[in-house]
């Protein structure tokens, strides 16, 4: 780190330099350090998951399976699914962006239970070790969904993976609990519920979903563990158990889990759209309440994963009817974001470029979701590559790209240095193009009938899969370039001032990188987070914070 | 208004403004944890309801094999322990630490009695061969009796585990009382452990009629 | 790009003919709403970018009328999509009472189709189809054209899924109960039948065909199959059609997922728990019906069990066939 | 449209479940009030206090030793009476099942009495009655999620043959 130390007016060292040594990092209760540690961990696991994805795409380059044998392929896609879902996308946005930014935005010194925050990071690492141990022990081949009776009868280290997932669930619950109590109890004086930035609303909804859905995953994984270990017969068909009941248990968690993945992304996008167009967000109440309604309605709809799995016709109708209600709050959010651009002073900065790519990709993902929700089409499209393309568009195009946009937005605040912006703009375009090259052919090959999780496929799908494989490698390289210049920026980039994007919310009113306990004295709030004066030139506008 | 006007007792964390804020944050956190525990047990109650709907006759036959008297006794034991726990929490709010310790020992005693009765029931069942899943070999139940006992052992086993965790917490609370860290100002920890114990009792209140009194 | 043939294979199933138009309408609705959202976004991105000096006065922070409109319209569209999907679904899923019933049993990596009225059982897998095509029988599931068919499916081990893209039909088959899939083919031909629910190592190999044939060809197929069934069963065809060939090699090579069967008869095999056993008739019979009992060292316990899948005489024919694989034991009983 | 009818029935079920849950703490409180009047005349004055049941931590209940921050410490007898009522209700549950009512009815009655007991424990032992509203909200939301989980899963399990009645599908008996 360059020597021009980033001490601010009271020349206190910032949190990066407050104390050095690996122990001071691993056992620090400072929410900013825990956020950076989560950042490093999730980035490593994302690279691991990404490599597996490239392995899968390489295998699918040719119609007949010749690179690796069927069993290894099955284990590869199972691990790609599990690592990406449990280790990358569920913790990434809430833990990295949430941990770092939430207390700063609230004007608090730290989260409500800092030791609990550190404990949930260590629990996350232990859970990750279990999952990676199951990978080393020859990995399991049940698919990340662990459907019984296959998962309870197959051999392989499924038990290790189940313990890993069980432990990771607790890390997610404890983070959710911490955030809810912090938002309730530690807001800056004057910050009423409707003066909070929208990222906090979506993090609040995410934590509520984490708290109310993850325990059901814990009990499901526990029952499956007992099923394999002792054979208590709950999901064992020969004893009268019903595999569909397992699917109900699993998807009651996993559908709200996809809202855990996407809700922070919505929060980040609402934040970025308003800051980078220097304009008050359009329909603040609409967006805030739609986050909460997504959290509630989101747990009513899990049956749309099981339309063709032997679920009764009545339940299919009920779940399909409810699924269409989940799409409405999302639509409100998207329309409000576009309306925010009207009469704004839009800065085409890298975060804003990623926002535009997010809007395009997430819209495609969302609309194909509506297609999959319609019953008569889902019978044909379920468990095909159409579904694979849909959830990659929504989770990778939506969740991960918004997370990357958030990283670009708060990078100067986290490390006090700016990344090369021109290169960032170019990579955001290559990410967008290579993403479409990878996943759009999957829509076509899926609707033509290529089932999911296939090691070999019928000849007629070959050229589409080859297109997807080429796209996958472009996407991989452009993401590596993004990682490269972000790291370079963090270490050698030019020093960034406290408020590079001219934002108003509280985290931009402390030095970047912020001092150990965030603020000198307690900031009080007298205005909303997006009250940009009309003719603002975008820099020193009236701030949400009344200096102490 | 930058510095905190009210002087803060030593034990309040630096990032809280007042003791009251820390107390309300701690109890809100505990209530969120209870909300999550309710959902944790909801999975098992869901399995119970699902399989009761599918195999009503197995459930009737299974319930007959369970020992109702011991179940009822256990309910009374747990209710009494809930009472003594509530009195212990009340005593901490009044600051009478000696009364707190007495009540806590009473609650721990009742918890241990509950576990003893539970182990008597379990040994009787294991002896009779009423084990979950395939190992089910007792007579009087057609083939999927193992399913009923699978859920029975899962539910009561998980509940017993939570009772054991509760006993550990109370032991820790007694240790802190002896060290004088608990007084009428710092009663939140006792209140939280009380809430946890009442939740354990709550789960048993629903578990007892569903499993034992299925008639 | 915008006609149904680009997206979907040709639809043969008369019970599900509404789905193609529905799919194309939804494609159009998606494209339009994409333009409705991204169009203004890109237009505003250029018009209001920082360097432009343009009227930016009084940006509206909320506009109740607009917000109500863009909540009500998507709700209306979505409820319309639901009802179209739901009505199409109920027509497509409930089989007519006079439908011809065929029992489909999915098992680890092949299908077995029973025709209850005609009393014949047909095994369908990649190897079995090659056998049948060789001697002129239509491969896979043979179905008469223009007659409603009711597939009553169940599984012998894990969850599989009966998926025929050309018929727009997909239904998981479960081990603990029967599920129903129904279609009515309108055009003769052979169409792919995939397993769509992940079921293990050779999930992608569990492919067979659905041959839609004319009424006469179907009657001829039935008669040929029924007189086929009272012919003495030849062990080789049982070996090839019931999936053994997929994992066990019959020539003296060491490849394959399961142990090689060439020269197995009378050989002493060392098992996983280091005990040894002589490969005689009841060891082979037991390893077919209950493979998990004695697993040969170096092989993972992956063989599905065939108890209930093979009739008694098929089992005898199979054991005799395996015995004949060992040349020097030609005469041994 | 018969589909619509069924969906409305489902929503009716969910909303009835929700108001039952919201009433849970108040159910405990009402029972407390009834028993309070029956047993002790002194309780009659508290009955009016208890009846008001306003949420703020007002000293509506007689206070043994006032606390500095006006923190209300509930008297011992409230706990003891709640405990006795709980014992009585346990007896009622056992009684209900011993009566050998027709099998379906017994479980519903038993669950109702169990939730009354739960209401009591929540309201008095866990101080939800005079605690902050947030605690009651958490309790209601998590129970509502449990209710959704149970109702929608049973919507699938209990209607397996809906629409397929005349197919007379054979059933596979668990082996």
Tags for this model:
heterotetramer; A: mainly alpha; Cytochrome C Oxidase, Chain A; 15 helices; 2 strands; disordered N terminus; D: 175 residues; mainly alpha; 69% helix
Describe the structure.
By secondary structure, chain A is mostly helical. Helix content of chain A is 65%, strand content 1%. Chain A has helices at residues 22-26, 31-59, 70-106, 114-136, 150-153, 158-185, 198-229, 243-276, 284-297, 313-341, 350-373, 375-381, 385-415, 421-447, 462-492, and strands at residues 524-525, 545-546. A two-stranded antiparallel ribbon of chain A has the order 1-2. Chain A is globular. Residues 1-8 and 536-542 of chain A have low confidence and may be disordered. Chain B has a single domain, classed as Cytochrome c oxidase, subunit III, four-helix bundle (Four Helix Bundle (Hemerythrin (Met), subunit A)), CATH 1.20.120. In chain B, helix 3 (68-94) packs antiparallel against helix 6. The radius of gyration of chain B is 21 Å and the shape is elongated. Chain C is of the alpha+beta class. Helices cover 36% and strands 19% of the residues of chain C. Chain C is built from nine helices and twelve strands. A five-stranded mixed sheet of chain C has the order 3-2-1-5-8. A five-stranded mixed sheet of chain C has the order 4-10-9-6-7. In chain C, strand 6 and strand 7 form a beta hairpin. In chain C, helix 2 packs antiparallel against helix 3. The longest helix of chain C is centred in the N-terminal third of the chain and has 30 residues, at 18-47. The chains are: A mainly alpha (548), B mainly alpha (215), C alpha+beta (333), D mainly alpha (175). Chains in contact: A-B, A-C, A-D, B-D, C-D. Chains A and C meet through helix 3, helix 9, helix 10, helix 11 and helix 12 of A and helix 2, helix 3, strand 7 and strand 9 of C.
Could you outline the blueprint of secondary structure elements for this entry?
The complex is a heterotetramer of chains A (548), B (215), C (333) and D (175).
Chain A lengths: L21 H5 L4 H29 L10 H37 L7 H23 L13 H4 L4 H28 L12 H32 L13 H34 L7 H14 L15 H29 L8 H24 L1 H7 L3 H31 L5 H27 L14 H31 L31 E2 L19 E2 L2
Helix pairs in contact in A: 2-3, 2-4, 2-15, 3-4, 3-6, 3-7, 3-8, 3-13, 4-6, 6-7, 7-8, 7-9, 8-9, 8-10, 8-11, 8-13, 9-10, 10-11, 11-13, 11-14, 13-14, 14-15
Chain C lengths: L3 H4 L10 H30 L16 H30 L6 E8 L2 E6 L4 E5 L1 H9 L6 E4 L4 E7 L4 E5 L4 E5 L5 E5 L5 E7 L12 E6 L1 H15 L5 H7 L2 H4 L20 E3 L5 E3 L2 H9 L22 H13 L9
Parallel strand pairs in C: 1-5, 4-10
Antiparallel strand pairs in C: 1-2, 2-3, 5-8, 6-7, 6-9, 9-10, 11-12
Helix pairs in contact in C: 2-3, 6-9, 8-9
Chain D lengths: L1 H38 L2 H11 L23 H23 L4 H23 L7 H25 L18
């Amino acid at each position: 780190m360059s020597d021009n130390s980033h001490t601010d007016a009271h020349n206190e060292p910032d949190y990066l330099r407050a104390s050095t040594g690996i122990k001071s990092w691993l056992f620090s209760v400072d929410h900013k350090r825990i956020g950076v540690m989560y950042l490093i961990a999730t980035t490593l696991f994302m690279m691991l998951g990404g490599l597996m994805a490239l392995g899968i795409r390489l295998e699918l380059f040719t119609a007949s399976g010749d690179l690796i044998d069927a069993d290894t392929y099955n284990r590869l896609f199972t691990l790609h699914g599990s690592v990406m879902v449990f280790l990358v996308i569920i913790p990434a946005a809430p833990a990295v962006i949430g941990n770092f930014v939430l207390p700063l935005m609230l004007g608090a010194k730290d989260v409500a239970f800092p030791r609990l925050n550190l404990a949930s990071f260590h629990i996350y690492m232990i859970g990750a070790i279990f999952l990676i141990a199951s990978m080393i022990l020859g990995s399991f081949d049940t698919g990340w969904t662990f459907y019984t009776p296959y998962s309870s009868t197959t051999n392989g280290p499924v038990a290790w993976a189940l313990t890993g997932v069980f432990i990771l669930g607790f890390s997610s619950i404890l983070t959710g609990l911490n955030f809810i109590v912090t938002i309730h109890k530690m807001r800056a004086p004057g910050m009423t519920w409707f003066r909070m930035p929208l990222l906090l609303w979506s993090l609040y909804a995410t934590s509520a979903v984490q708290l109310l859905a993850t325990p059901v995953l814990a009990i499901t994984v526990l029952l499956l563990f007992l099923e394999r270990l002792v054979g208590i017969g709950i999901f064992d068909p020969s004893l009268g158990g019903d595999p569909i009941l397992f699917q109900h248990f699993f998807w009651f968690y996993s559908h709200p889990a996809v809202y855990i993945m996407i809700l922070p992304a919505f929060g980040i996008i609402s934040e970025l759209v308003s800051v980078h167009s220097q304009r008050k967000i359009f329909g603040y109440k609409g967006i805030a309440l739609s986050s909460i309604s997504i959290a509630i309605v989101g747990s009513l709809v899990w049956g749309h994963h099981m339309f063709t799995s032997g679920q009764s016709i009545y339940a299919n109708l009920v779940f399909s009817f409810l699924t269409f209600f989940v799409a409405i709050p999302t639509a409100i959010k998207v329309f409000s974001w576009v309306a925010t651009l009207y009469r704004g002073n839009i800065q085409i900065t890298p975060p804003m470029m990623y926002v535009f790519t997010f809007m395009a990709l997430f819209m495609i993902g969302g609309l194909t979701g509506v297609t999959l929700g319609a019953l008569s089409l889902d019978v044909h499209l379920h468990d095909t590559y159409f579904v694979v393309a849909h959830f990659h568009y929504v989770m990778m195009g939506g969740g991960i790209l918004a997370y990357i946009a958030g990283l670009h937005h708060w990078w100067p605040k986290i490390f006090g240095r700016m990344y090369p912006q021109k290169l960032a703009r170019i990579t955001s375009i290559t990410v967008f193009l290579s993403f479409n090259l990878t996943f759009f052919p999957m829509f076509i090959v899926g609707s033509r009938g290529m089932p999911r999780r296939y090691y070999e496929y019928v000849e007629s799908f070959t050229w589409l899969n080859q297109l997807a494989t080429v796209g996958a490698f472009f996407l991989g390289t452009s993401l590596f370039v993004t990682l490269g210049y972000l790291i370079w920026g963090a270490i050698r980039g030019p020093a960034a001032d406290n408020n590079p994007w001219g934002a108003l919310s509280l985290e931009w009113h402390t030095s970047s990188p912020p001092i150990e306990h965030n603020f000198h004295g307690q900031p009080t709030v007298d205005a909303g987070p997006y009250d940009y004066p009309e003719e603002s030139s975008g820099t020193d506008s009236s701030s949400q914070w009344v200096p102490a | 208004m930058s510095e905190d006007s009210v002087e803060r007792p030593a034990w309040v964390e630096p990032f809280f403004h007042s003791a009251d804020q820390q107390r309300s944050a701690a109890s809100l956190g505990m209530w969120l944890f209870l909300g999550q525990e309710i959902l944790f047990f909801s999975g098992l109650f869901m399995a119970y309801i699902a399989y009761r709907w599918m195999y009503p006759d197995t459930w009737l036959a299974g319930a007959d094999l369970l020992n109702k008297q011991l179940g009822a006794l256990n309910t009374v034991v747990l209710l009494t322990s809930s009472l003594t726990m509530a009195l212990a929490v009340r005593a901490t709010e009044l600051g009478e630490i000696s009364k707190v310790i007495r009540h806590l020992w009473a609650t721990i005693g009742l918890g241990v009695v509950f576990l003893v009765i539970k182990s008597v029931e379990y040994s009787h069942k294991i002896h009779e061969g009423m084990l979950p899943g395939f190992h089910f070999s007792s007579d009087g139940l057609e083939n999927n009796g193992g399913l009923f006992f699978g859920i029975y052992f899962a539910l009561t086993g998980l509940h017993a585990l939570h009772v054991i965790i509760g006993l550990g917490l109370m032991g820790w609370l007694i240790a802190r009382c002896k060290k004088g860290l608990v007084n009428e100002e710092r009663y939140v920890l006792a209140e939280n452990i009380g809430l946890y114990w009442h939740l354990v009792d709550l789960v048993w209140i629903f578990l007892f009629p569903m499993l034992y009194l299925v008639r | 790009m915008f006609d149904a043939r680009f997206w979907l294979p040709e639809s043969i199933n008369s019970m599900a003919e509404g789905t193609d138009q529905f799919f194309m309408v939804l494609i159009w609705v998606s494209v339009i709403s994409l333009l409705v959202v991204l169009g203004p976004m890109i237009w505003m991105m250029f018009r209001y970018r920082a360097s432009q000096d343009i009227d930016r006065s009084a940006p509206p922070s909320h506009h109740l009328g607009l917000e109500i409109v863009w909540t009500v319209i998507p709700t209306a569209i979505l409820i319309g999509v639901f009802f179209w999907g739901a009505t199409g679904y109920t027509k497509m899923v409930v089989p007519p009472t006079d439908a011809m019933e065929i029992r489909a049993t999915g098992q680890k990596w092949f299908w077995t189709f029973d025709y209850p009225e005609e009393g014949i059982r047909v095994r369908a897998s990649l190897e079995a189809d090659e056998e049948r095509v060789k001697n002129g029988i239509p491969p896979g599931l043979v179905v008469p054209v223009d007659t409603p068919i009711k597939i009553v499916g169940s599984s012998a081990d894990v969850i599989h899924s009966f998926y025929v893209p050309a018929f727009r039909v997909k239904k998981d088959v479960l081990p603990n109960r029967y599920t129903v899939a129904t279609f009515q083919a309108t055009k003769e031909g052979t169409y792919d039948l995939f397993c769509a629910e992940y079921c293990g190592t050779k999930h992608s190999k569990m492919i067979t065909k659905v041959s839609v044939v004319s009424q006469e060809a179907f009657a001829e197929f039935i008669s040929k199959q029924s007189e086929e069934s009272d012919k003495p069963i030849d062990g080789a065809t049982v070996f090839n059609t019931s999936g053994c060939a997929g994992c066990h090699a019959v020539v003296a090579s060491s490849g394959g997922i399961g142990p090689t069967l060439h020269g197995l008869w009378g050989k002493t095999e060392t098992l996983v728990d280091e005990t040894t056993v002589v490969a005689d008739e009841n060891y082979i019979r037991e390893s077919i019906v209950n493979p998990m009992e004695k697993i040969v060292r170096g092989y993972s316990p992956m063989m599905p069990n065939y108890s209930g899948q093979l009739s008694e005489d098929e089992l005898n024919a199979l054991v005799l066939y395996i015995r004949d694989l060992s040349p020097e034991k030609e005469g041994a009983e | 449209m018969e589909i619509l009818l069924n969906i409305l029935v489902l929503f009716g079920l969910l909303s009835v479940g929700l108001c039952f849950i919201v009433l849970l703490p108040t159910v405990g409180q009402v029972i407390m009030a009834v028993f309070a009047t029956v047993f002790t005349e002194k309780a009659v004055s508290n009955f009016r206090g208890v009846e008001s049941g306003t949420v703020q931590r007002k000293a509506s209940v007689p206070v043994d030793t006032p606390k500095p921050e006006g923190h209300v410490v509930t008297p011992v007898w409230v706990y003891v009476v709640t405990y006795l009522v709980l014992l009585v209700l346990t007896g009622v549950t056992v009684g209900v099942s011993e009566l050998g009512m027709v099998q379906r009815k017994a479980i519903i009655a038993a669950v109702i009495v169990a939730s009354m007991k739960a209401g009591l424990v929540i309201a008095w032992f866990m101080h939800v009655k005079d605690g902050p509203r947030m605690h009651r909200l958490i309790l209601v939301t998590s129970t509502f999620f449990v209710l959704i989980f149970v109702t929608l899963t049973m919507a699938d399990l209990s209607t397996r043959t809906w629409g397929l009645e005349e197919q007379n599908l054979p059933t596979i008996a668990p082996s």
